[in-house]
Fold:
Amino acid sequence: MNRTDKAAPAPVLTTPWSDLALTRHPEDPRDPLRAWDAADAYLLKHLAEQGVDLSGSVVVVGDRWGALGTALAGTGGRAPTVISDSYLGLEATRTNLKRNGLSGPTLLTTQETPPARADVLLVRVPKSLALLEDQLHRLRPAVHAGTVVVGTGMVKEIHTSTLQLFERIIGPTRTSLAEKKARLIFTTPDPSLTPGPNPWPYRYALPDGIGPLAGRTVVNHAGVFCAEHLDIGTRFLLQHLPRATDARRIVDLGCGNGVVGTTAALTHPGAEVLFTDESYQAVASAEATYRENASGEARFRAADGLEGVPDGSVDLVLSNPPFHSHQATTDATAWRMFTQARAALAPGGELWVVGNRHLGYHLKLRRLFGNSELVASDPKFVILKAVKQASRARGRRQ
Structure:
């Protein structure tokens, strides 16, 4: 990072109560994506204009980068409880609160017990309909007849199925007019509703032809990518994973439901496997899948990839990196994962990656590692291998 980057001010969100300097996490002055969007701003404006009472128990679900939690911490009402599936989102919230001299919100993961009472429930609609379903089920006991329930999202994120979930689990639902391509959801709690049991987590038997896990059970918590079936990219990777290498320290990077790392554990008896993902739902899924099918030494952590893993401490990294951040298409996450893998690998260690052909991962790997080998390909995917060379300096993103 150069002097100009260090001096770059954080973008400012003007709320009805104050101006807030907000960034995503990890902070990167070159990142053109803001820590909020029109849906966040629309919700905050509505709360102020309608004079919603914020003195009671306020619960915010799915705040992406801390914009809602930070803004509500500065209203003078009771500090809100913020619930998020994202490690990066919660870290952004902590940073943004500190940056703006605010404190007080309780920060919870989606795997922790939610508050017993919600007088105001604010829901940032997630990309995953399953995660919304799970969270509404988990929070329904906290909702009472007088609870103010407001959802928010961009128009492209709110579908008929979204509204049906609110209506089926919480009560009658309507939407606002669109404003700057954002929309609000208003739900009136109906205590007499009986929505039935929460269907998550979901378990199913894996298909044949994928190696040691064929026919075995996978466990998916809501919100995990392709939670109801094995995604085709991971399936392709499972069919070509390295077998019985001398790797003793293996990482499933961006582990999702953990099928890749669990397969590696079965083919490498005695190896230590680290499962890491920024999603708490994913990490819980990976641990459940591993416990169902394997034994031995394994660690599970929600984190920013391999941040904190000692340099040169890993023999094999396996990854199916995401190329979206919420609704935005970006290679920033994949680049960060590859850079972290390069640092964590010991000399001679290998990074195996599966990705869509059009993403051009081979160029990134050659730039970082000085090499990239095509292991397998089909019309849609490629599997690439990069080897850590002892003499090559660490690559840098320009």
About this structure: Residues 140 and 390 are 55 Å apart (CA to CA). The mean pLDDT is 93.
